[in-house]
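Changelog-adjacent note: as of this version, every example in the card shows the full chain rather than a window. The one below runs 472 residues end to end.
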Amino acid sequence: MPTPTIARGVCTTYCGQSPVTRSKTVLLLAVALVGSQAGGARASWSPPSALSAPSHLATYPEVGLDSRGDAVAVWMDATPTVNDRIMASARLGSTGAWRRPVALSPAADFGTFPELAVDASGATVAVWQQSGTSQGNTNLPFIEASFKRSPTSPWSRPVRISKRGVDSEGPEVAINSDGQAVAIWFTAARTSSAEVSTINIAHGVWSKPVVLQQTRKVILWPEITINQGGEAFAVWKRYIRHTGGRRIGQGDTQWEVGAAVKPAHRSSWLVRGDVGREEEFNLQGDHAQQQPGPQLAADATGGAIAVWQAGTSSHILTDFAVWKAKLRAWSKPATISQVSALWPQVAASPTGATTVVWEGNNFAIQSASGPISSCCWSAPRTLGSATPPQFAPYLSVVIDGSGDALASWTAGHPEIALRIGSTGSWQQAIGLTTSNGGDADAAMTSLGQAVAVWQQPNSQGSAIEEAATAPN
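Full-length structure tokens:
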């Protein structure tokens, strides 16, 4: 069977579909003021309220928080007459009021798949995939970025950070407490690559792209993180083989997990292309933005962990590898869950308290925790289950500085669960809406500051909603 390739100039993700052909959705937002949780009180989430404009098509929301509770949200937004644009809205924690959304990308092109990173002081970076003829890309998708230096400052003018004339897609971005940010994406042409660019928000200039790995086989869905010391970590997957079907994702598919580390105060990356082997069952990897891929987290002292699907197509598990800072090497892959584990996600606190969540047997959402050194994982715990019972690819987990964790997932109804402390029990999952929803994201900086966003279908268009309440 010949090796599947990505043809030059052929988009592998959403690249300019007319907005009127997609179902209308409403983008919702809920804020939880969890408080001290004294006496085991449960988190109380506010009713959702709209942020995006009425009758728009709002999808793919992302959200971030700073240490004061200032929030930023970005999303894709379209009307029947205006292509997808990247919109952003900000909320000051002191007032609780969301500002009117502003456009980050031009109306003439297609701005899609935004990603967001916010540091403790409120400095924010957004990246997205832009498709169109602007900035000399002759209709090939490229990566654009914009930033703001504080919660009240304006957004910078968007700039292209990927190479001119190269099909660039799937961006991700991370930032640390010093305003050092790093973005990553993949390219699709006769060869495929994982590439990165960095910026210091105070200086405001992006570096030229650096190629981490380049191959004739497909590279997809890179992830990036950066710790407080300025050490950056990246992971991605590279196609190996598949059985059945003519496209990647049609049939069981195997991928090689690659990784790279950039030590602080160094310009070069330490790259390893074979950290582990990812496994996907038939049609799981279908070029959707929520398809499987390795995930990544790091602590403040140089440790990092990558997780991914492993095993066989009929028995998918969750594997992990740990970056050993003193040895400057990745550990051998090991298994966290011995039972079915799909779409694993990972988060770590600055002290290395690590939590992994995944979807297990019978659509149960499960979790395991331990130190980032991976010496001793807890037994898997069930947080809840997908509602209605089906696959839940919109799965995420975040951790604050004290080890409190917030997990969210969406199969049809967006749900969220809170854990107090790195070794505490998960509270009963809360449904954020009783009707069907879509892609969700969450952020938390402390038990008193958390926010969740998701997309919600309706009959008219799209909006984003917000409200706040105290804990029960």
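Structural remarks: The chain has one domain: 22-457.
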